[in-house]
Amino acid sequence: MIIETEDRSYEVDLTRTWSPTASITPDAARETHSEGELILTVRKPDMIGDTQWQFRHGKNNISAPIADQDWLDEYHAGNIDLRPGDALRCTVRFSYEYDGSGKLTGQHIEILKILEVIKGDGRQISFLDTND
Questions:
Q1: Which residues lie across from 64 on neighbouring strands?
Q2: Secondary structure of the chain: what % helix, strand, coil (to 5)?
Q3: Handedness of CA 90, 105, 103, 9 (dihedral sign)
Q4: Number of domains in the chain
Q5: Residue 20 belongs to some domain of the structure
């Protein structure tokens, strides 16, 4: 027997038990990319230079490498003052991987370029009781 669809035809041996889905090859996996600008609050910087940075974007935690080597060199040389509560305005690349049925199977975020360091409010809260 031959089964024809709009774009393919399949031969089926009726003397054997078969499943229609076993004869159909699933669509190939897909990967999509997009770029955008985000402001990310620094949670944990990479002080050593070989790990991912940790950020907060709204209520979401994000781990991502920074690919801007010029900025990283300046940061690791101590020329960029980065403190708790500071944020980075940056260009980010989003990569998403999908299986043949469109289900998200992986995602990756990479910081391509640091555009600006946004200083936090600079306030510190003292945990010492000064009324003693």
A1: 53
A2: 10, 45, 45
A3: positive
A4: 1
A5: no
Region of 122 please: left (phi>0), alpha (psi -120 to 50) or beta.
Answer: left
Q: Is the pTM of this model over 0.85?
A: no
What DSSP state is assigned to residue 81? -
CATH label of the domain that carries residue 76: 2.40.50
Q: Is residue 132 part of a domain?
A: no
What are the beta bridge partners of residue 9?
4
Q: Which residue positions in the chain have pLDDT lower than 50? A: 123-129, 132
3-state secondary structure of 56: strand
- CB neighbours of residue 79 within 10 Å: 9
What's the domain range around 106? 26-118
Kindly state whether residue 81 falls inside one of the protein's structural domains.
yes
Q: Which of 8, 39, 43, 13 is nearest to 26 (CA)?
A: 8
Give the C-alpha distances (Å, rounded to integers) separating 116 from 75, 86, 125.
Answer: 13, 10, 26
**pLDDT tens per residue, range 49-69:** 778 999 999 999 999 999 999
Please compute Rg for the chain using Cα positions. Answer: 25
